[in-house]
Queue: 2 jobs
Job 1
Amino acid sequence: MTSPTLRMGALALAALASGAVLAQNKPVEAAKPATEKCYGVSLAGKNDCAAGPGTTCAGSSKVDYQGNAWKLVPAGTCVTLKTPKGTGSLSPTKA
């Protein structure tokens, strides 16, 4: 083999190796678990958002288990959550 041929081969090998390294360094994104809004299950000041008129959002609920304040919970678990005021709700309540 001649010197230019060796150089071309070395360059091709380097390009292939760097491509393989780059392909392996991609971060793997973790699957996010499905969630749902569950009303009436958060403690005062611990809601994720929507605590009714006159409130700013997250952390603004005034009482425990406020019916119009929600918390994100794993999908399918809201209506099984029990509180002193009943179970969680998928829609705002007056409780």
Note: The longest helix spans residues 3-24.
Job 2
Amino acid sequence: MPKTLNNINLELQGKTVAKAKENNNSIPVEKTITGEFNLSGSPQFSAHVTTEATKFELECDEPSVLGGPGVHPTPLTYLLYGVMACYSSSLASQCAVEGLELKDLKVRGKLIYDLGPAVIESGNPIIKGLKLDVISSTKLDEQIKRAWKKCPAVYAIQHPIPTEIAQAES
């Protein structure tokens, strides 16, 4: 039975560490998702997503202030959820690697944004801030700092990502 701590499979993680060390501390990955905007009704956007174990569909709407139906979560809700999920996993993993067993772990996220620049020309930033509060009965100051440096979603938020947007063949 694999050794797990904080719901992290340390045996599988150890294999990943070994693989990274064999490849100059790198494990390149690409993730591609194709979604579709619904030109009538809700959800406004949906995409079939696959994992190692299953397939499911993600659906979202824009809020009514942006002209959407507001039935499904917004794209920014998924963004905040994704950062929170990735960071909490990174923190649980960091604790597990250090042999620190958690009794509880919650993350409260706050995304501060301005929808004005999304609907009219403005020099104001759309996203103004992101705050994560870690809630745990275990003191985690050092682990929080280390997980912050290792979390892929936090890295993506803090560093510009080379981005290309172009029309493609269907």
Note: The longest helix spans residues 75-97.
